[in-house]
Design a protein that fits this description.
2 copies of one chain form a homodimer. Chain A has helices at residues 5-19, 43-46, 53-61, 80-89, 106-111, 122-134, 136-142; strands spanning 26-31, 34-40, 70-74, 93-96, 115-118. Chain A is an alpha/beta fold. The termini of chain A are far apart. Chain A has a 5-stranded mixed beta sheet with strand order 2-1-3-4-5. In chain A, helix 6 (122-134) crosses helix 7. The A-B interface holds A 43, 47-50, 55, 58-59, 61-67, 79-85, 87-90, 105, 108, 112, 141, 143-145 and B 43, 47-51, 55, 58-59, 61-68, 79-85, 87-90, 105, 108, 112, 141, 143-145.
């Protein structure tokens, strides 16, 4: 599959984080096909362990009241923190760039009725692969290992 | 059971949030029996949907490297967002004030090997009960309903 414009923005967010010395994972929140928020991992930049790409994106979105009619994009399959957030917020659909570098919590989300689409994009795969090879300690810290 | 000093601090955090016009849920992170961070729900105060009490507390903790040797206290049973975070971060023990007003994701945490202790404290129960009665819209927004 190809990256649509929202995934392209998520990838741009991931690259922005990388250029800041951070972890290259980006996310976009979409409502009625319009991007309403974007964010990227901020662990390094803000010294904040909870700000994965998806969580930073939801922080940027602010209080929408309800997230039930939104779709979230992420360059990588969500971990349990982000998946738990998606389930609790009632976000119905998740579109990810890849899951080869991190299998994440796909089954957990699906068991709660979330639709998960994995685009398996070479650009996302190589971006994470190179980062994990270069900074394994930072990556392990990010996934709680 | 009684509230130990860490739960007392979590309750103090919850009351602080209430006095600020926020949602009365507080949290404390403990390492080797010493409180290393505390926080409270910041949805209203910071216009931030991800800052439940536990998430604010982990934000205050910052990058510890590993959370495997920490225990987290919360005045209320964690939702899927906070439970997913606890599982992903490898936090081994959760001590909550109550779960009567919100059953939360106890089974999910336990299925991932997290020890969950519910103190069932009258003070925590009445605090949430009164808040939910007074501001049901805000409470429903907080749990994604």
């Amino acid at each position: 599959m190809k990256a649509d414009m929202h995934m392209q923005e998520a990838i741009r967010q991931a690259k922005k984080s990388l250029s800041e010395g951070g972890i290259p994972i980006g996310s976009v929140l979409v409502k009625e096909e319009v991007a309403i928020a974007a964010g990227h991992n901020q662990r390094v930049q803000l010294n904040n362990p909870i700000l994965h790409g998806e969580m930073d994106c939801l922080t940027q979105a602010g209080r929408l009241g309800s997230f039930h009619d939104t779709t979230i994009y992420s360059t990588l399959m969500p971990c349990y923190m982000c998946a738990g957030t998606i389930v609790q917020f009632g976000i119905k659909k998740v579109i990810v760039g890849e899951s080869r570098n991190f299998a994440g919590a796909r089954a957990f989300m699906e068991s709660h009725g979330v639709e998960v689409v994995d685009l398996d994009l070479p650009e996302c795969i190589s971006m994470m692969e190179e980062f994990i090879k270069e900074k394994p300690e930072l990556w392990n810290e990010d996934i709680g290992k």
